[in-house]
Amino acid sequence: MTGLSRRRRLAAVAVIALAAVTGSACSSSDGGSGDGGGAYLVWDPYPQFAADSEWVALLKKCGTSAGAASVERTGYDTTDLTNKALLAAQQGNSPDVLIVDNPVISTLAEAGALTTTDDNKLDVSAMAPNLLGAGQSAGKTYGVPIGANTLALYYNKDLLTAAGVDPASIKDWPSLTAALTTVKAKGKKGITFSAIGTEEGSFQFLPWFWGSGAQLTSLDSPQAVSALTLWNDWLKQGLAPNSVINNTQTTSWQEFATGDYAFAENGTWQLANAEKLGFSYGTIAIPASAGGPAPAPTGGEFVSIPVQKKTDRYETSQKIVACLTNADNLLTTDTTLSYVAPVAAVQDRQAAADPKLKVWVEAVRAAKGRTGDNLGTKYPKISESLWTAVQAALSGGKSPKDALTAAQAATR
Q: Which residues contact 275 (CB under 8 A, 6 or more apart)?
């Protein structure tokens, strides 16, 4: 790509970012210059980690081993980071290492803001292909996954035991619906999830959508209709509460934590909270329509190397990224972030160290990237159409079929 065409692409994409933030792109005075002299700049979406955290200690350790004079790290909120990364790229002012939410990779790649692994020589051969896919666009790979989270079903062991339901019997949609019906007959509540009209709603619907055999390129397929019909029928039959229409993943978890629900769809990030529940819990994979684990969407970040004016910086940046994503460091980092590692051997070590992670490892191994299948920057529009359809159906505004027909038309 020529410098002129790259600037035009960046300018076009950055218009969106400019609407979301005020002020100009970061300057070197606030940690936003790729020309950092001896200092190598790292931006990440983990503002919760302070300067004395293990995460920052690892960044500095990797900087030292790579030969960098120093590492200067800034943690941003996820949305803020995306905007700043686009604007910094437009100004030729990118950090040396950028860690971003995996759906953002395709946006930055299309803008010409990231180097490919062919360019920067990062080795991704050990990474799980289904996780790596979220960082790929047009046959090129633009980073290394640092870890993944995904969705599964938490269940209330005490409630299921009292209702006479064996969670091991739940293998597909009919057996799950039968379990919910049994629980409701015992005077308890079935399942809670998030169907809010945002990306969270799409994220939670995707395991059922993909588990039906549907594809994001055909939102109105019979398989897709069957998935939305499943959720719609649960609400009609009182197996799921009407509150799911407005539930975030946090409020859905709060409902489950009351002890009144048999199941909750939620993610690995709730594991610490699960240990604080006032009842015994377990987890099972979200079942596909006809059985087996459904593909759930992956969350988690990629470590990437942005385009720099001074290409001699790439070698040190590559060494920093390689250090951050080697097996031992991945194990430490992913344990801290409640992520499942992107490397099978490290996943096995995680499951051996904590048997409760076995279900999550299996779920991640069956998972899919939201921007996979070469959707790239088309995904946000598809996702908005999908969550709009879910809202329309569950609120009673349209039938599942009509809602998804309108959704497909909106993506054209």
A: none
Residue bearing tokens 């569950």? 394
Question: Dihedrals φ, ψ of 106, to 5°?
Answer: -65, -35
Place of tokens 């001896």: 38
First to last CA, the chain: 28
pLDDT at 338: 86
Alpha helices (H) in 125-241, listed in sequence order: 129-132, 157-163, 173-185, 199-211, 222-236
| Maximal CA-CA distance, the chain | 68
Contact present, 159 and 257 (Cβ < 8 Å): no
- Residue 138 is predicted with a pLDDT of 85
The Cα–Cα gap between 85 and 43 comes to 9
Please list, residue by residue across 111-147, b when 16 or more beta carbons sit within 10 angstroms of its beta carbon and e when fewer do: bbbbbbbeebebebebbbebbbbbbbbeeebbbbbbb
Give the contacts of 353 (CB within 8 A, at least 6 positions apart): none
Helices assigned H by DSSP within 44-102: 54-66, 78-90
Phi-psi sector, 267: left (phi>0), alpha (psi -120 to 50), beta: beta
**3-state SS class at 371:** coil
Q: Which two tokens stand for residue 353?
A: 């160290």
Burial class (CB in 10 A: 0-12, 13-18, 19+), 372: buried
Q: Which structure tokens are listed for 236?
A: 């009609």
CA distance 131 to 105: 13
Residue 403 vs residues 257, 282, 398: alpha-carbon distances, Å: 32, 34, 6
pLDDT digit string, tens, across residues 188-245: 999 999 999 999 999 999 999 999 999 999 999 999 999 999 999 999 999 999 999 9
How many of the other CB atoms lie within 10 Å of CB of 93? 22
* Parallel/antiparallel/unpaired status of strands 97-101 and 301-304: antiparallel
Give the bridge partners for 97, in sequence order.
42
Q: How far is CA 31 from the centre of its chain?
A: 27
CA 358 distance to own-chain centroid = 19
Does the structure show a pLDDT above 80 at 26? no
What residues have CB less than 8 Å from 209, skipping those under 6 apart?
A: 216, 224, 227, 228, 386
Find out whether 340 and 150 touch, Cβ atoms under 8 Å: yes
What residue type is 412 in one-letter code?
R
Residue whose token pair is 């990629």: 302
Q: What CA–CA distance (Å, rounded) separates 364 from 286?
A: 11
